[in-house]
Amino acid sequence: MAEKRRPYRRHTAATWAAACLALLLAVLTGCGGPDREVADRTAVQQVLDARAAAVRDHDEGAFLASVDPAADGFRDRQREMFANLRGVPLADWRYRLVRTGAFPLPDAAGSGPRVAAEVRLRYRLAGYDTAPVTTIQYLTLTRRDGHWRITSDTDGALNGKRTARQLWDQGRVRLVRGERSLVLGTGQPAARLRELARRTDAAVPAVADAWPGRWSRKVVVEAPDSVRRMAELLGSSDDSAYTGIAAVTTGEAGTSNRAPADRVIVNPQAYGELSSLGRVIVLTHETAHVATRAVTTAATPLWLSEGFADWIAYRTARRTPRAAAPELTRAVAAGRLPERLPTAADFTFDAGADRLNRAYEGAWLACRLIADTWGESRLTSFYRAMATAPKGAQGLDRTLRKELHLSTAEFTAKWRMYVNQELG
């Protein structure tokens, strides 16, 4: 049988013209394959490097050169942000392109080639940060006339890719330098910022006395002008979760065994409603988190990290257990002695105010029990030992046995007796 032959395809002039046109369009639209992608990534990183250098050099013109002139509203906000940074003592400021294709790009008729970039910003405050603050930005860049420019930092928000906001995104930053603190505020009276610096200065030696060892002994406090702005700095769109919270400490660099650049973020409404003693306790508590962050890991139970910070805060406050733990006192009086140590779920905002308060109070009494029974040095030793423990119940049980010679069940029973004794 004769072999079948494939039909011969004639390549006409029209066919070759169509192929050449397709190739030309691919080049012009940036669809030139891996080499084009690598070249675009390199060009985008160069834009980011020039933008970072402009911030470090306080060069507004060079900074705005990284922004698309056609993006009027975004360009205006970027100009304001750059002005808000004026006076902030920056030791370093750098961007790194993490990846492109980070989020779906919205339709934009008539625009040039675009990339959806995930970018890591790292910066340090001179004289305060021993490690950089690291935040994520989601940027849209467009290529016009052969140059990449930033056109938006909000296009990824609909897909959960929100650019992290900093204080200078919210308004002009005012600074107050304390002996051991730096307070940055927007829309706050100078007297409030000075008061925050004074109380934080006093908190640092109080914490250092209870927590010997290496830490920076310097604290950066951020004071936004509303609870909504506080939530924004913490990456949340739900300000109701922070309504009753006077302050929060966040380790933005975030690695477990490296001292990060923490920020104490103050809620102006809740902080303003506190008594003088309440303000001392809050700022000492948050400063304790700054001091212990380097040895606070995923293995550290929340009852220990929060209870230890409260133990330091109340250590010299001369308050009775009943005065310091009113919610738990009421529960004990009603015959509702807690059955277990507070869990992570007890410390969430979803738990409700009463349960959340009981969790903090129970955690404080657990740490107070250790200090009263085994000594303060044993409490700090136990805290440090948890940093290298396996995560979970097994790690806690092993460390309790090693440091206190009790199992978790035995320690819990002793804690319940102590709570009943102190509050009953």
From TrEMBL:
Keywords associated with the record: Signal
PROSITE patterns in the cross-refs: PROKAR_LIPOPROTEIN
Signal peptide: 1-32
Record's protein name: Lipoprotein
